[in-house]
């Protein structure tokens, strides 16, 4: 029993069945066929498995009586091949049809590896089969390594990739990664619960009252919640690397915003370390004061304790993220115990001492009295809000270590939003409890009880047996308004509150000490600020930024020792708020840009809410401190300008790019609804440069009259086999566009593959552009080698001029004495650069060997170097692809190089001579006028030359001057040429005749039969009849050259009306001869012919 190999066996037996993955098991043995025939059931089919497991590859069901057939099939070593023994492209074996779907073809099934970035830390990037590999005919001899057929056929890459993948997996496995609780929730809670909870919240309730106090908390929470939602949306819109707020902003808004906010955000975290440590040190110093254990004086004690604390925190951070995370958990436990201790203390019956200090447990009268505000002098709602708001910040503590999270997309939203909720509930709970238990003012004296017969002032304390009325006239030390240690007094065990203060300050300091280097390292890795590249290096499996830790330590120490933290604190708060504002704006901007790539998995956000959050953050910045907000904006603006000027070479697919595209698309569509008007005409050019770097002079002169005013498209036609042409075209597209950008040329690059040059240009003329932004002018270089060129090249060259006129597109032909093509020069330059690189590589190798070998080895290497004639490289000066300095004349034509840069130089005082011989709508006049507006050409004056009658020279000169003045075009002089139509001198005509002699048919000198035969064999030659019919035109071209030699020999540029060759009347070689004789031995010439539609108007 065996399985039939023939292809017809595997075709669907049931017409119309759409499933092609079926296995029809057929018995070829005559002995077994009878048994099979006895089975009246129809043949049974089974789909192959869609699983990847080997044991599921051959899931074939069988009917009763047929099991033996399947057993024989599975035991047949010839048919049941293993994966390692079949050919990846074998479609004629049994195994091919039994392979899992997607593994039996070069076309690959969807896999995550195809969508990773190169160097992804989450796994290796794999290249799927290219469209070319799938579309082209399959190579007959394809070598596939055993065991790798599935990988290659499925696009998984070659077997050698497995080793790199395993190695990367091992490195990743060794790194410490945190979940959403330890990585985000714990950090955010610790950072939000700051020292403000213990020493300022009671004062805020005293000033604003319970009602407005809760409103202040909710308003602060609204800002942080909106920011948290925006953060969650951005974090779930793709894989998040390390860098926290900087990464989120830079990948959304681009390097300009990200680079500016990233630097100040990292600096803010570094200074925040000093702020939190000083808060801790001040608490310790207060305890030392109470026990009379001061070391020097309060200020220096704070410095000493702060410095020691920072060193200890640095040691914990440098020890690794795992130790730091353990420390954070311990601090959170202490903090939770301290908060619980406060709530427990509120229900423990108060004693007389605490009552004298204003604590009476829960009392409705105290709650009612404290519900409304009672702002003291100089305070108000916004000033109190400004004091509290920094306590609500810290929501980015988890996002800042995004690179150390197992799943940032899940951890950041869940941990951040839950932390905001828990901390808000705690803040509101503490505010309400302390407002319901403690009065605003208390004397602290147990003797201030109310004696019978005394008049009560009506306060809540008075109703509870205490008279604190003297606090209205003299300052008191206790109560919500006066005592910052209210929570310690209320709590069940006071020292636990002190421990809570220590925990809150140290945890915030530790979080900032970790966040600052992580954010800074991510910023440095992106190389936005090249001077900071030193801090990009990481160490260990977790890629710890040890250099960043040291820098953060230095900054923190500096501000602990010398800075006025009370002055710097508002600026730091504003730095954080600026980050929040940009995160909100990033979310809004990404949504508003409507990019298909904006698909956040976290859907609980709204673009307008995010915009409101951004505006709210900016408003809060000014509420907290207006001058600090101004300083923040100035610094951010300066850094934004710096990064924009430097233009970092990064592409992150930011929403700025998406919005630019949408804006450009909308503008282009809007433009199509507006009819063209002559006042808005501008030359929009297709320039046949080939590669833009190969004909720079042609591009430069075109760019001179299109820059900032019109469209310029550098075009290249690839002629030859389509497969090779498309490959070459696609490989160079980005490089050539990048060359244009690098050389600050405002132009696009476009290329087509065609069977012949003319067909390619015809395609470009018809299809280039978009909407109203379509080319209206074709710019080509003059074909200098036309006499030696093959017939097809001349036909193509003249043909594209005819095609342009057929499509009603103007034509500009540019001629310079040396020609345009410098491709040979570039080739020489590339070879020299390769030699230079090889020489530098050899020198580096020699230096390495010098380090390894002793002094004897060094002497030997010097001998080798002298033999190789290696000299110390001299520093290169800035140069472009168009400029090559100090090279031997024998290697290339130095004059050609100089000519290629002539339009880059500033043109001195001179003239642009405009020979406006034929009215083409005004393009011949408009182009030179635009040139005079450019910086390089502004010193050149326009001289206008027109044809006229000898007896009406003055009248025609006045008429032309009037026309030019109506066009508002300034000119230096007008010349009326009255002798254009006279015959040229004999020498000039003889030159022309010698020029066309090789291309003449001379049919009049031969008999009729011979002449007809020659016409059929060489139809491209110039006939005597043709030459006689256009003799006057030929005279005109030769005569015009004489006049040009006479009048415009010294001009900087000549702009001349292009003669038009009537199709079917003027042969290609005669037309080329006209162009040659017309522009021979002259300065740079622009032969211009518009499409005979007005491009100038004198109407307003």
UniProtKB/TrEMBL annotation:
Subcellular location(s): the record lists: Cell membrane
GO cellular component, as recorded = apical plasma membrane
**Domain (Amino acid permease N-terminal): residue spans on this chain:** 90-157
Q: Where is this region: Disordered?
A: 31-50, 149-169
Parts forming coiled coils? 825-852
An example Pfam family from this entry, by short name, is: SLC12
Q: Name one GO biological process term.
A: cell volume homeostasis
Under Gene Ontology molecular function, one entry of this record is: sodium:potassium:chloride symporter activity
Give start and end of each SLC12A transporter C-terminal domain.
695-1100
Gene3D superfamilies in alphabetical order: Amino acid/polyamine transporter I
* Topological relation to the membrane, as annotated: Multi-pass membrane protein
Chemical reaction(s) catalysed:
K(+)(out) + 2 chloride(out) + Na(+)(out) = K(+)(in) + 2 chloride(in) + Na(+)(in)
Q: Alphabetically list the UniProt keywords.
A: Cell membrane, Chloride, Coiled coil, Glycoprotein, Ion transport, Membrane, Phosphoprotein, Potassium, Potassium transport, Sodium, Sodium transport, Symport, Transmembrane, Transmembrane helix, Transport
From the record, give the transmembrane residue ranges: 192-219, 261-281, 302-321, 327-348, 380-399, 419-439, 546-565, 571-592, 604-628
**What are the residue boundaries of the Amino acid permease/ SLC12A domain, all occurrences included?**
183-686
| InterPro entries, sorted | AA-permease/SLC12A_dom (IPR004841), AA_permease_N (IPR013612), SLC12_C (IPR018491), Slc12a1 (IPR002445), SLC12A1/SLC12A2 (IPR002443), SLC12A_fam (IPR004842)
- Family label: Belongs to the SLC12A transporter family.
Q: Write down what this protein is called.
A: Solute carrier family 12 member 1 isoform X2
């Amino acid at each position: 029993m065996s399985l039939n190999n023939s292809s017809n066996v595997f075709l669907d037996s049931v017409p119309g069945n759409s499933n092609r993955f079926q296995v029809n098991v057929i018995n070829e043995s005559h002995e077994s066929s009878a048994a099979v025939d006895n089975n009246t059931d129809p043949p049974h089919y089974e789909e192959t498995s869609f699983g990847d497991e080997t044991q599921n590859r051959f899931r074939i069901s069988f009917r009763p009586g047929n099991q033996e057939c399947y057993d024989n099939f599975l035991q047949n070593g010839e048919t049941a091949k293993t994966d390692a023994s079949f050919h990846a492209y074998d479609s004629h074996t049994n195994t091919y049809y039994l392979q899992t779907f997607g593994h039996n073809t070069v076309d690959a099934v969807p896999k995550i590896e195809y969508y990773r970035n190169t160097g992804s830390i989450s796994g290796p990037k794999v290249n799927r089969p290219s469209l070319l590999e799938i579309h082209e005919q399959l190579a007959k001899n394809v070598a596939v390594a055993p065991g790798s057929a599935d990988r290659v056929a499925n696009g998984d890459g070659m077997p050698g990739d497995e080793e790199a993948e395993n190695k990367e997996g091992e490195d990743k496995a060794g790194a410490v990664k945190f979940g959403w609780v330890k990585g985000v929730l714990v950090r955010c809670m610790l950072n939000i619960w700051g020292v403000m909870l213990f020493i300022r919240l009671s004062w805020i309730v005293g000033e604003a009252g319970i009602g407005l106090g809760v409103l202040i908390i909710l308003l602060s929470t609204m800002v942080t919640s909106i920011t948290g939602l925006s953060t969650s949306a951005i974090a779930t819109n793709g894989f998040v690397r390390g860098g926290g707020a900087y990464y989120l902003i830079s990948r959304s808004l681009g390097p300009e915003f990200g680079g500016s906010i990233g630097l100040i955000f990292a600096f803010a975290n570094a200074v925040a370390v000093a702020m939190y440590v000083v808060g801790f040190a001040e608490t310790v110093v207060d305890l030392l004061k109470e026990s009379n254990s001061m070391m020097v004086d309060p200020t220096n004690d704070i410095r000493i304790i702060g410095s020691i604390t920072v060193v200890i925190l640095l040691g914990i951070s440098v020890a690794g993220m795992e130790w730091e995370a353990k420390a954070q958990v311990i601090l959170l436990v202490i903090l939770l115990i301290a908060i619980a201790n406060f709530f427990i203390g509120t229900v423990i019956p108060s004693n007389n001492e605490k009552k004298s200090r204003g604590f009476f447990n829960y009392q409705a009268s105290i709650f009612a009295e404290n519900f409304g505000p009672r702002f003291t002098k100089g305070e108000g709602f916004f000033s109190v809000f400004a004091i509290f708001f920094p306590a609500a910040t810290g929501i980015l503590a988890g996002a800042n270590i995004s690179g150390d999270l197992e799943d940032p997309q899940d951890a950041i939203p869940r941990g951040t939003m839950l932390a905001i909720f828990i901390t808000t509930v705690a803040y509101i709970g503490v505010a309400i409890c302390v407002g319901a238990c403690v009065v605003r003012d208390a004397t602290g004296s147990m003797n201030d009880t109310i004696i019978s017969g005394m008049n009560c002032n009506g306060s809540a304390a008075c109703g509870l047996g205490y008279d604190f009325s003297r606090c209205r006239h003299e300052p008191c030390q206790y109560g919500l308004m006066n005592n910052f240690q209210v929570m310690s007094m209320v709590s069940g065990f006071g020292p636990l509150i002190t421990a809570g203060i220590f925990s809150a300050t140290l945890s915030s300091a530790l979080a900032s000490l970790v966040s600052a280097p992580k954010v800074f390292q991510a910023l440095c890795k992106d190389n936005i600020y090249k001077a900071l590249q030193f801090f990009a290096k990481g160490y260990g499996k977790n890629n710890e930024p040890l250099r960043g830790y040291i820098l953060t330590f230095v900054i923190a120490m500096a501000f602990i020792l010398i800075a006025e933290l009370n002055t710097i604190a508002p600026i730091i708060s504003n730095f954080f708020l600026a980050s929040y504002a940009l995160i909100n704006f990033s979310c809004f901007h990404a949504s508003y840009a409507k990019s298909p790539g904006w698909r956040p998995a976290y859907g609980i956000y709204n673009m307008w809410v995010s915009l409101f959050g951004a505006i709210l953050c900016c408003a809060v910045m000014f509420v907290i401190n207006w001058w600090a907000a101004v300083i923040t904006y100035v610094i951010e603006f300066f850094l934004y300008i710096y990064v924009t000027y430097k233009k970092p070479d990064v592409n992150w697919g930011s929403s700025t790019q998406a919005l630019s595209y949408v804006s450009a698309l909308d503008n282009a569509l809007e433009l199509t609804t507006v009819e063209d008007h002559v006042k808005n005409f501008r030359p929009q050019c297709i320039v046949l440069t080939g590669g833009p770097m190969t004909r720079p002079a042609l591009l430069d002169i075109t760019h001179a009259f299109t820059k900032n005013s019109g469209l310029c498209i550098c075009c290249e036609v690839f002629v030859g086999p389509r497969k090779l042409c498309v490959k070459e075209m696609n490989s160079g597209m980005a490089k050539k566009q990048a060359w244009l950008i690098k050389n600050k040329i405002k132009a696009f690059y476009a290329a087509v593959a065609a069977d012949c040059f003319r067909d390619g240009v015809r395609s470009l003329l018809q299809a280039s552009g978009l909407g109203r932004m379509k080319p209206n002018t074709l710019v080509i270089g003059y074909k200098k080698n036309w006499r030696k060129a093959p017939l097809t090249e001349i036909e193509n060259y003249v043909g594209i001029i005819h095609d342009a006129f057929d499509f009603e597109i103007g034509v500009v032909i540019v001629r310079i004495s040396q020609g345009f093509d410098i491709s040979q020069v570039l080739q020489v330059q590339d070879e020299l650069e390769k030699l230079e690189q090889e020489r530098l590589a050899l020198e580096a190798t020699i230096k390495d060997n010098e380090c390894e070998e002793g002094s004897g080895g060094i002497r030997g290497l010097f001998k080798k170097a002298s033999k190789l004639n290696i000299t110390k490289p001299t520093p290169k000066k800035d140069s472009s692809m168009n400029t090559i300095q100090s090279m031997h004349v024998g290697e290339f034509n130095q004059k050609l190089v100089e000519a290629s840069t002539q339009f880059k130089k500033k043109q001195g005082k001179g003239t642009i001579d405009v020979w406006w011989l034929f009215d083409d709508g005004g393009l011949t006049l408009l182009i030179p006028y635009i040139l005079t507006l450019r910086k390089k050409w502004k010193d050149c004056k326009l001289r206008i030359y027109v044809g006229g009658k000898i007896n009406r020279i003055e009248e025609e000169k006045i008429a032309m001057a009037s026309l030019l003045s109506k066009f508002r075009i300034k000119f230096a002089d007008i010349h009326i040429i009255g002798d254009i139509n006279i015959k040229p001198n004999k020498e000039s005509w003889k030159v022309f005749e010698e020029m066309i002699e090789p291309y003449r048919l001379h049919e009049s000198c031969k008999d009729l039969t011979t002449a007809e035969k020659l016409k059929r064999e060489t139809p491209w030659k110039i006939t005597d009849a043709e030459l006689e019919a256009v003799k006057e035109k030929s005279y005109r071209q030769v005569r015009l050259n004489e006049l040009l030699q006479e009048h415009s020999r010294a001009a900087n540029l000549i702009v001349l009306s292009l003669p038009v060759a009537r199709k079917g009347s003027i042969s290609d070689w005669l037309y080329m001869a006209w162009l040659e004789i017309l522009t021979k031995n002259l300065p740079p010439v622009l032969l211009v012919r518009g499409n005979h539609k007005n491009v100038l108007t004198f109407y307003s």
